[in-house]
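We modelled the chain as a single entity of 94 amino acids. Its sequence is:
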Amino acid sequence: MGGSDSFNEEKWYQMSVRVLQSEQELSKNKGDRIAAFRAHCDRMTELEALAKRFGKAGAAAPERVASTRFFRLEAEIWLDRARAGKEKDREGDS
């Protein structure tokens, strides 16, 4: 692997958000919406773990690893909001 493009967390994040948005569009009820947020949260948790492994191997800069922590925390916030019935769109609007 190696090189500056060996780990691109932004692309993985963007694709996960697109999947989340598509799943939201297809959701028929609150349970489906929560499941979609849970799946996104799970993907971001996996992305963070992968980033840490890449970081330890020298294939990802520390700031790239740190950005995956933000993605995971954001996903957890979205999931908590969905569970509470206070969903916001991904751009932060009400």
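As a brief sanity check on the tokenised model: Residues 36-85 form one domain. Helices lie at 9-26, 30-56, 62-83.
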